[in-house]
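Researcher: Let's walk through a ligand-bound prediction step by step. First, I give you the protein sequence. Second, the SMILES string for zinc ion. Third, you return the three-dimensional complex as C-alpha cells. Ready?
Model: Ready.
Researcher: Here are steps one and two:
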Amino acid sequence: MKIYAIETGKVKITKRWRVGQGAGIRRLLNTFLDNEYTEWLPIYVWVVEHPEGLMVIDTGIPADANKRIWFPPYMPLIQRAAKFDMTPEQEVGPQLKKLGFLPNEVRWVLLTHLHQDHDGGLHHFPQAEFIVSRQEWVAAGGFGGRMNGYLNQRWPDWFQPSLIDFDTIPLGLFPTHHTLTQAGDVHLVPTPGHSPGHLSVIVRDGEQSIFFAGDASYTEELLITDKADGVGPDIQAQHKTHRRILAYAKENPTIYLPSHDPEAKARLENRTILTLPFQASVGEKSH
Ligand SMILES: [Zn+2]
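Model: Step three, the predicted complex:
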C-alpha cells in the first residue's frame, strides 16, 4: 500500500507542553508559562492509497493560523505557548494535488482528534466522509469545547462527521475497536488522554502495522519512555494508552507515526519497526 507523509507546516511548543510537569491547574500553568520552546516540529498529514478508497489522516493547519487573529482573544496563553510556521502552499489541498491526487477523490478523512492543528484543513474536502469518535465530537462541541481549546467556530458550516462508537471487541489490550474497511485491514482504536476522544488508526499492510498515532504521544521516544504531555486532561489515560500501544507493538511489527515526530517520515519511508530497547513491561498495571 502506498502511504505518503505531507508536512503541512511546523509548530513549536513549550518544552513543558511536550512533557508535562506537575498536576492539575499547576500543570497547565507550567505548560503555558514556560519560557523554553522545542525546536520546530512537523505537522503531518498522512495519505493512504487504500484499494477501497483514498484515505487522509488528519488535515493539518491553515496558513491563517500564522495570524494572531486566528486564535480568539480568550486564548492568549495558547497563542503564547504554541507558534506556527506555514504558507498557503503547504496546506493539505495544494500538497495533495502536487502528489497527483484531487481532494475530491478522497473517500475518507480520519481525524485522530479535533485540535486545531489536525482539523484546520477540513475546507479542502467538501466531498469526503469525515470520521471522528463520538466522544471527541461531544468534547469539542459548543461553548464547553471552545473553553477547552477547540476552535469549533472555525469548522465549515457543512462539517458533519460520521461518529464512531467503538464496538466491544478488544484488539490486543485496546478494549474496543472499529474496523473501517471491507478488507478488515484498517482499524480505529481509542487512544484517549491527550484529548478525551482521541483515536489512532492502524493500517495493516502485509505483515506490518502502520500506526497513525496523532498526538497519543508526540514522539516514539516519549511513547517508549511513557511521558505524558502538559495539556492532556487525563494523565492516567495517557499512560494507559501508551502501554496499550506498546503491547500492540510487541505483538505486531509496527511502524509508529505520531503527527509531530521529526523522525516519523523517515520511519515510514524506511518502514522502520518500533523496537523496545529492553523488555519493557507493557501490562495493564496501574501507573
Ligand atoms: Zn492535539
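Researcher: And what stands out?
Model: The chain has nine helices and twelve strands. Residues 113, 115, 194, 215 surround zinc ion (CB under 6 Å).
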